[in-house]
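Session log. Operator J.P. requested a structure for one protein chain; no other inputs attached. Running the standard single-chain path with token output.
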Amino acid sequence: MKYSLNDIPHTLQKDSLALVFDFDGTIHKKHHRGTQVPSVISILRSEHILHEGYSQKAYAFKEIYHKIEQDPHVPFEAKSEKMHEWWEKHIELLIENKLTRAHIRQASYHENLIIREGVVQLFNFAKKEDIPIIIFSASGTGIDSIYFFLERHNIAHSNVHIVSNRLEYKDGVMTKVLPPIIHALNKNEAVLAHFPEVQAMLLKKKTVLLVGDSINDHDMVSHKNHMRVIRVGLLNEIEDNKKTELMTHFQGAFDIVIESDGSLEPVYEQIVLLK
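Structure written below.
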């Protein structure tokens, strides 16, 4: 069944609802001043927050693996293995370059990371109404980067639960990532076995409103576990010809498509009508 924004108030009840968000390109905008800002980890690379050698190697990894991630001809299993391999190598690189929580905070507070319109209102309303928010992210800088970004905007509320890579530190310096490594192709409810409190809470909810900016985000939540899943896709492409190419795929994967790196205010406006 397909839904529209106007269906939301008639379909959902606050006490049976959970909100599930991707992070990069979803909670923050994908473009700033005409420049693409895809992730916190891209800030680490581009702003040389770590050593110059880190940036060079990180860009080299991206050149190899991002092409594989975007190639529609690579089978899913093979692509998933390569994404795991990419993150393993990147984790080793971060450890080698002595990543600290201070570095992550610096990247998360960078001026080029602009929060998407409507997010603050939506998060504050969910806090007020005790609607849980789960953020699923494959971020290479993990839970800390997302927390710092939310903290920066005063929306790191107690009803927000972050499911992402869990970095460990010794004397403030990163030493490892706890399993499982979460990447773009395994970012779904299966990883919640490692986050049992979040898993138990989400399974109690009949309805999930899912928001993401990638076709793969469609699978963050399964219909098998919930009565209804309403999927909102953020088509962040700002060039009309590329946006047209992607639109058919987004319309097939999502119930609702918001174009051109647009605002979540229309979603917020419908959520506040819930009973």
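Operator note: The first strand starts at residue 17 and ends at 21.
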